[in-house]
Amino acid sequence: MEIGIDSFAAMMSGNENNAISDALAMEQLLERIAYADQVGLDYFGIGEHHRKGFLDSAPTLILAAAAAQTKNIRLGTAVTVLSAADPVRVFQQHATLDLISGGRAEMVAGRGSFIDAYPLFGLDLDDYDALFVEKLDLLLKIRDHETINWSGKFRPALRNQSIYPRPVQNPFPVWLGVGGTPSSFARAGTLGLPLMVAIIGGETHRFRPLIDVYREAGRKAGHPEDKLKVGLHSLGYIGETTEQAFESFYPGYAAAMTKIGKERGWPPTTRAHFEAQAGPTGALLVGSAEDVAEKILRHAKALGGISRVTFQLDTAELPHSTIKDCIGLMGKQLKPLLH
Amino acid sequence: MEIGIDSFAAMMSGNENNAISDALAMEQLLERIAYADQVGLDYFGIGEHHRKGFLDSAPTLILAAAAAQTKNIRLGTAVTVLSAADPVRVFQQHATLDLISGGRAEMVAGRGSFIDAYPLFGLDLDDYDALFVEKLDLLLKIRDHETINWSGKFRPALRNQSIYPRPVQNPFPVWLGVGGTPSSFARAGTLGLPLMVAIIGGETHRFRPLIDVYREAGRKAGHPEDKLKVGLHSLGYIGETTEQAFESFYPGYAAAMTKIGKERGWPPTTRAHFEAQAGPTGALLVGSAEDVAEKILRHAKALGGISRVTFQLDTAELPHSTIKDCIGLMGKQLKPLLH
Questions:
Q1: Does the beta carbon of A115 lie under 8 angstroms from any beta carbon of chain B?
Q2: What is the overall mean pLDDT for chain B?
């Protein structure tokens, strides 16, 4: 099983405590990616957000800088908000990243969990699904053919156009990043794309029926079993002990969830709620390496097998040195337990 | 005077001789940028092209990788084809690059000398000037204000939108990259933007009247003299001696110019033509460091002063080691002569 990290490049210049400049936050993020590579983690993903509080509106730039400072780790997005982007530009950026990294680039294409990109790029939320379907179609055509003819509703047609550069990897890895929408799971299966499932709350095993929808759609479309890979993205944090992990993680997690909850209409987060999420069947991957490894294996079994798990470590707004310690434990303790 | 290099990230995988993979070409380009930084050059620019033969369709990705491997050199585009891009994305990318590089990023915005971007992004060449004017206006608004209201013809309106991340530098440096169009020189002056003039053929001093248009427009608009900077971009190559430089540079230069000339209706390049261009008043910066330094000072005087000169070294398709030697001579011999 591959172990990785996803980061949304938190902007900390506006923090009440431990504020640091955006340039220093970027430097520390790049240092963490390089460290993840050194300790042997398999993947580092950068999100895409278009709002105050995040530095990742241009994630492939951060990944390109990381590519120059790493040797083995695979680098991708988490997720590319494809609905709001031009697939031609997105492909050019990822192909360039693939050249820079010597074939270590990936893309997780999704619709995004925030909606800021829609007004920013003049898009209508009524087209939420249609935009994604059309843009994914174009992206995969560009990936699979150097020269294409294409027409659609949301972008000017391409007549015998060639897109450069071409990536090192062929086919270039494109995952579908999904939340809880059943049609998204079916779409990924039908297209034979690997599936990255974000499970950031509730009980992880409850996603099994949706993953079955994915595998079933994939089989029906005739894709071989080994193409139908499932990855799991969850919030997490590894400490020296489970107790220490809980104590370090909870305060920042509660504050962050309560803040997002205000926008989305969730109730404030309580300690009891956190402990349920951090318990044996909950979505949070918080604890000692041993406890979390056991939990990941439990989740993997419940979901019918997973090939990658990525941790979102930024949630609790922990200081750089604490996150680095966590990355060290992920490489040195967690990874060997899951190999 | 600042000394720099501009590269268009030549794709060499299709070359008849000395073909190398695109990944190796990218690795060598990044190595040259790191070397340019080590020998003390001031600037490295990456172009933007959307055609076979170039690896720079996403120039800010290459610059982000370079930023991670350099300490002092300033990094920018040469040029960003702003007419065909979304200024929001372009700003996000450059702001991210500025964070990654710790405030060493720049942009040279232009209309591009090839027209491939127009059909690729569904644009009409009839809008060549209107596109640039509108997009530059939006770009500068985003640069100067975190939250903006804007509407135009070629992009959806922005209503009270904030664009992130914000760059380290304020204002973020935006140059105008121009060829020979008089209205472009006047526009740069009126806006008080530094001017990057591409002079790739003919006699450099003949651009003086256009540069006077720039300075006059700038003065009329009330911009202080020190904001009205002029940079010069030319094809060049420094050898140990002028004879050696001519012998190394000519064959590849003639082949490349003849090839582009076929598309643009120029006659084939001859040795006599080359020697005129490489002579005292011609545009080519080819020769020994001493001869080229003298020539640059002559050009600077003829143009009323220049603050930066950038060399396009890729034209003659010289091997990586030869270009590296040239970069070494630029840092160790040419730069001290122009300081």
A1: no
A2: 96
State residue B266's pLDDT score. Answer: 87
> Considering only CB atoms, which chain A residues are within 8 Å of B161?
119-120
B37-62 pLDDT, tens digit per residue, is 999 999 999 999 999 999 999 999 99
User: By the 8 A CB rule, do A261 and A267 touch?
Assistant: yes
Residue of B nearest to A162 (CA): B51
> CATH number for the domain including A248?
3.20.20.30
Nearest to B93 among A61, A100, A161 (CB): A61
Are B159 and B189 in the same domain? no
Q: Which domain holds residue B61?
A: 1-172
Average pLDDT, chain A: 96
A128 found inside a domain: no
pLDDT digits (tens, 9 = 90+) for A33-81: 999 999 999 999 999 999 999 999 999 999 999 999 999 999 999 999 9
What's the total number of domains in chain B?
Answer: 2
Is B1 in the same domain as B98?
yes
Token pair of A204 as six digits: 């992880």
b/e B54-63 (16+ beta carbons within 10 angstroms → b): bbbbbbbbbb
**Which three-class secondary structure state does DSSP give residue A283?**
coil
- pTM of this structure: 0.98
Nearest alpha carbon to residue B237 among B298, B297, B318, B338: B318
Q: With CB atoms and an 8 Å threshold, state whether B103 touches A68.
A: no
Q: Is B66 on the interface with A (CB under 8 A)?
A: yes
Identify whether A89 is part of a domain: no
Picking from B140, B172, B204, the residue at the C-terminal end of a domain is B172
Q: Which of B117, B141, B172 finishes a domain?
A: B172
Chain A contact for B277, CB < 8 A?
A: no
Are residues B252 and B150 part of one domain? Answer: no
Report CA-CA distances (Å) from A298 to A76, A196, A291.
Answer: 26, 18, 11
Interface contact A52-B164, CB threshold 8 A: yes
CB contact (8 A) between residue A61 and residue B57: no
* B36 has a pLDDT exceeding 90: yes
Q: Do A13 and A22 form a contact (C-beta atoms < 8 A)? A: yes
> Pick from B67, B144, B128: which is nearest to B101 by CA?
B67
Residue A298 within a domain:
yes
Is A285 among the domain residues? yes
Q: How high is the ipTM of this complex? A: 0.97
